[in-house]
Amino acid sequence: MNARARAEFEILKDRERCCDCGLCAKQCANGVYSVTKEGGWRIADEKCVNCQRCVEMCPTGALKVIKNRNAPRSDGNWHLQAVREIYKQAETGGVLLSSMGNQSDMPAYFDRIAVNASQVTNPPIDPLREPMETRVYLGAQNREVKRDANGQIKPEGGALRLEVPVMFSAMSYGSISYNAHAALARAARELGTYYNTGEGGLHRDFYEYGANTIVQVASGRFGVHKDYLNAGAAIEIKMGQGAKPGIGGHLPGEKTVGDIALTRMIPPGSDAISPAPHHDIYSIEDLRQLVDSLKEATGHAKPVFVKVAAVHNIAAIAGGIARSGADVIVLDGWRGGTGAAPTRIRDNVGIPVELALASVDSRLRAEGIRNRVSLVAGGSIRNSADMVKAIALGADAVYIGTAALIALGCHVCRSCHGGKCNWGIATQQPELVARLDVEEGVRRLVNLVTAWKHEMEEMMGGMGINAIEALRGNRLMLRGLGLSSRELDILGIMHAGE
Amino acid sequence: MEIYAKGMSCEQLNEAVRRCTDKRIDIRACNGQRFIACAGAGRSINVYGVAGNGAGAYMESGELRVYGNAQDALADTMGGGEIYVFGGCGDAAGYAMRGGEVYVRDNAGYRAGVHMKAYDKQFPVLVVGGRAGCFLGEYLAGGIIAVLDLHNEAAPLGEEAARGMHGGRIYVRGEVGVPLPECTAARRAEAEDMRLLEPYLRKFCAAFGGDVNALLADKFTVITPAENARAKRLYVSN
């Protein structure tokens, strides 16, 4: 019942252009296209996720995917999405499962913040002609400066050096493909930054990228062992994730096959369950214990990140984490992406990262402990302007996940949980994975981050700032647009015009 | 090598252990220093006194013997080797343990053996001589937990044992004594079940004393995941 009404998209095939090559059917893992007994095309609109693969691949440009013009009646309260979700639940009794970030159309605070520029009273800087410092160190902020025999300052012990303040955020091998991980790892190395393994362990082929790898430890402890902990440049304890704060994860047995099981170090075909809590962490003291035990296991050589979802009392939580001995706090906002999360959790739990970041930075400063830790913000950094604003709100660096995947060819069809990604990213089917060209992927990721770096330099130059250090937490460079005074207070910025 | 640990911080103690190249290290007057034998491999470490939190965490191989009690998070994410505790242990022992064997002579605290899992040739085993606290073997995915209740206390297990268990087995000497969740099945251990447990009981008795044959002749209950324990299809794609 209601299959046609549930179809979000309809496919228009131009009969005049179509050359009946059948490529669309071969390209679509969702089985939208089939040939009838009579030799005609049967098109199952309801199976289409609008990933645009067939449209891009069609040699004659005969295909278009559009919003289904046929739709049940909807209004300002009963949006089509709400009606369709009820159809699905009434039919199956299932919990709604979605992929990627919160799609709420509430405006991002980033979009309501304007950046400053120098005029007359202080000169802007031209980044093409003058040096711009975009290098950032994460962790070990308060160690004393040491010099070598030649008087050169030695790099701070164990701190991560980022040539550009962007890292690729945690996406496990299992949630994304081997080729996607390969591209992220190689791009991170080329860019002088880091990618994150996520909680699915580190594939043996990628140990060679260890110097640009952050290894994650989550509640399921999949693939966590001594060599893994020592393989990366840093260790991230995942306490929470912006897309699904407060709940765990479950990779069903059908997906834990082959190298996925091997890398997670579980028997093939067994459910990989990440409990909602770490059952050895019920307090800040317990967190400290895990931080310390990871440091012991790695000879105190690696910074430890603690990643939490942005939630209501985040400032107090971050204060606790800063005192737990962690080197870096990662704040993941409510728009953060995911390979699979219950829709209701994703769209209703947690708070925007802009507010969380500002309040955490303020609190840590007020308590005089901001220099003990670095702050990394994630949860929908979409472009260089978001990055610049995040840094001015108090971040040392940002994490990008979805943006990196889009660079790799993701078309944001939000169907990662189905495992049939036609672009070879969120899938483990070998014939689909092979579609992602690693070389090309590396090139596109490097392009993206390099372009962002240039844009950031231009914005910094415009503000008369030539080093990230001077931008971090520099909220005087920001003004709010159409925000309430309460919102401005929390963001710690003035309104435009003030 | 022998280390007199009194007054040492855990960093100092573990640094001393890391630097030492001896295969055998005795730590005397240990007073709760944490992370002893953390990520340890190929060595025999004897602790006299109380081993603090996180003893044997990420341990790879070798042996850790604690002549006294161990505190919380014993054998956290342990991968291999053997741990003997000549006393009791605190909470969360063997969390996410993937391999190796842990023998605790007396009682274990809350949340012992949570999320243990087996992998390839790695097979984690946790044997508790006394009783175990609440939430034993939650999310158990692989390996063996045995609770021997040798001191015949009120009940061998606390409440909420084996919640979310989907692999592995839990042995309890005598009756379980608490309600078990639907995802599990409990039955009297048969000869075949006892054959699986026997080598570990032998090691337990060899370390702590006791008559292994009498123990093997006792009635044991074995808890396994129920036939249909696979997580239900809870979700609908949106």
Keywords, separated by commas or semicolons:
heterodimer; A: 498 residues; alpha/beta; Alpha-Beta Plaits; TIM Barrel; 2 domains; eight-stranded parallel sheet; three-stranded mixed sheet; B: 238 residues; eleven-stranded mixed sheet; 3 helices
Overview of this structure, please?
In chain A, helix 5 crosses helix 15 and helix 9 (314-322) crosses helix 11. The mean pLDDT of chain A is 94. Chain A has two domains: 3-94, Alpha-Beta Plaits; 114-118 and 125-495, Aldolase class I (TIM Barrel). Chain A is built from 17 helices and 21 strands. In chain A, helix 17 links the parallel strand 20 and strand 21 (494-495). Chain A is of the alpha/beta class and 498 residues long. In chain A, the strands form seven sheets. An eight-stranded parallel sheet of chain A has the order 9-19-18-16-15-12-11-10. With 238 residues, chain B is α/β, with parallel strands linked by helices. Chain B has a single domain, classed as 3 Solenoid (Pectate Lyase C-like), CATH 2.160.20. Chain B is built from three helices and twelve strands. Chain B has helices spanning 10-19, 191-208, 212-217, and strands spanning 2-4, 24-31, 43-50, 62-67, 82-85, 101-104, 125-128, 144-147, 169-173, 184-188, 220-225, 235-237. Chain B has an eleven-stranded mixed sheet with strand order 1-2-3-4-5-6-7-8-9-11-10, with helices on both faces. In chain B, helix 1 links the parallel strand 1 (2-4) and strand 2 (24-31). The radius of gyration of chain B is 18 Å and the shape is globular. The model of chain B has no long low-confidence stretch (mean pLDDT 94).
CATH domain class name of the largest domain in chain A: Alpha Beta
How many strands, what sense, and barrel or not for the largest sheet of chain B? 11 strands, mixed
Q: Which two chains have the most extensive interface, and how many residues on each?
A: A-B, 42 and 47 residues
Question: What is CATH's topology name of chain B?
Answer: Pectate Lyase C-like
End-to-end gap of chain B: 62 Å
The amount of beta strand of chain B, in percent, is 25-35%
Strand order of the largest sheet of chain B: 1-2-3-4-5-6-7-8-9-11-10
Helix count of chain B? 3
What is the 3D form of chain A? globular
Uncertain residue ranges of chain A: none
Helix content of chain B: 10-25%
Mean pLDDT of chain B: 94
